[in-house]
Amino acid sequence: MSIDGKPFCSSSIDLTKSTMVALTFFRNRSTTVPEFSSVGGIYTFSLTWPEIQTLTPAMVNPYRMYSMFRNPKERNFGKLISLSEFLNLAKNSTSLSHVLINVENAAYLREKQGLDMVKAVLDTLTDTGYSNSTATKVMIQSTNSSVLVVYLLQGIDVWAEKNFHLTCPLFNPVAS
Known about the structure:
The chain is an alpha/beta fold.
């Protein structure tokens, strides 16, 4: 969520992990937030939505340790999209049955930054027509049970299962 309260799609609250922000003039906004990391980062709540829109997403490369790259020609292309843009794309899709929105760090954003992510997501769902019945169902995932309760009270499905994310190589390349 941006400093001006715009929810958008990102895999991390630290933009250095998901964008090329460290290569821009925004690098001077690096701060250390002990709740997230002991090293500096450039967090979503440090930039406005128009500023975030100027960033290029970084391609996640799970094969970096093998010196394999995912389409390096496209590494400087792409754009971050707002939650409303994403929901409109999903609503107009004929092949999707569900959308999963992961809501994390809501307590920190509310208590320390004065940003209400839960309300912003609810407002975005309403604004994009998901409060009415749509063919595409919305599910909310969060590690914070308080967040899930708010969405449950609104009649939105939640994904409350504990999920384990494993990182393991798919193969072990042999030097030839």
